[in-house]
Predict the 3D structure of the following.
Amino acid sequence: MVPQPVCFFTPLYEVASVINSSLDTQTVLQKVTEEVAKALNAKACTLRLLDRTGKLLLASASYGLSKGYMRKGFIEVEKSQLDAVLLSTGKPVYINNAQVDPRFQYPSSAMSEGLVSILAAPLLVDQKAIGALRVYAAEERQFTEEEKNFLLAVSHIAAIAIENARLHEALKSNYELLTQYNYQVFED
């Protein structure tokens, strides 16, 4: 019997609904990682954003990982070949076994956490990388083309949501400054 292909319309709809449901970026990113992990039947998922220097990937949201694993340290793009390639090419990267692959920055942490295969997709805004979305499997696993496409679609939607949230915050901040200035001018 030939296995039936998995339909990702419903999980993609769930992710889009989550993104549209809240202006709280942290809540949205947390829910996105949860929905992605569940849709891909994966152990865990993380969403990391580049810092202002572009040298570090900072944990922004995760699902299915221990607090200890998330505190293991920053991901230094220079030391993580997985992320260096991902962010420079804008294409997904697959690692069959992170516990032994030199492209992964923290192989001993992956072993302790029970992480084996990884599929990562870039978060891109106007062709510029702003972060990475990673899915972790507890066993060696080949991700299907449909799963890769789903992860890419979610990463694109999440990147747009993150950029919109940043723009919203900047606009709100500018408005508050302008209001405060106008208030001071009219009070004087």
Summary: DSSP finds six helices and six strands in the chain. Helices lie at 9-21, 25-39, 67-70, 81-89, 107-113, 145-187. Residues 145-187 form the longest helix (43 residues).
